[in-house]
Amino acid sequence: MLDRKNRLITEIINNGKLSEYEEIIKEVIENISQQGFIISTRYDSSQSAIDWISKRIRISLIKDPMSIVWDLFHEYGHLFSGEKCGGSKLIDCDREVKAWDNAFTKLSKYPRLLSQKDNFDKYRVDCLKTYCANHHF
Ligand SMILES: [Zn+2]
User: Fold this and answer.
1) Please, are residues 37 and 51 in contact by the beta-carbon 8 Å criterion?
2) Furthest-apart CA pair in the chain: how many Å?
3) Ligand 1 mean position to 1 CA, how many Å?
4) Could you say which of 6, 93, 104, 117 would form a disulfide bridge with 132 (CB–CB 3.0 to 4.6 Å)?
5) Alpha helices, H only, the chain
6) From ligand 1's centre to the CA of 115, what distance in Å?
C-alpha cells in the first residue's frame, strides 16, 4: 500500500510530467520531511510557498516541469534561509535571494540538473523580478 509520501511523489511525477526526475524528487522530499515539514500540492495558483507556522510547503503543479523542480529546491532552500522576522507578511528579498542560492547549492550535486543551469537562472530571475520588483539584482 502506498503511504502519504509515496502518493505525493506519484502525484508530482504524474501531474508535473517529471518521471525522468523521479529519483531526485524522492530525495528532496525525503530531505524536507526530515526537517519536519509536510509537503502538499496546489492547483489553485502557480505560486509555491512555505508556511513556517504549520510547517507546510505547498508546491504548485500548474507550471512547466522544470519550474516545479526549481520551486521544490527553492522552498527546500528556504529551510536554510531562516524564518521571516516577526511573522511579517512582507517579502524579504534578501531571504528570497538566499533561498535561491541555497537551492542552487543543493541541486548542483545532480549533474542532470546542473546541465539545465540556464533554465534555472532564467526562472530564478523571473521569480525574483516578480516578487522583488524594486530590488536590484
Ligand atoms: Zn521564496
Assistant:
1) no
2) 50
3) 34
4) 93
5) 4-15, 22-34, 65-78, 93-107, 111-114, 117-131
6) 23
Pick the CATH number of 4-131 from 3.10.450, 2.60.40, 1.20.120, 3.30.2010: 3.30.2010
Q: How far apart are CA 136 and CA 122, in angstroms?
A: 16
pLDDT tens per residue across span 23-79: 999 999 999 999 999 999 999 999 999 999 999 999 999 999 999 999 999 999 999
What is the DSSP-derived secondary structure letter of residue 19? G
Rounded to the nearest angstrom, the distance between the alpha carbon of 2 and the centre of ligand 1 is 30
CA of 103 to the centre of ligand 1 (A): 10
Q: What's the 72 CA to ligand 1 centre distance in angstroms?
A: 10
Closest CA to 25 of 95, 127, 106, 86: 106
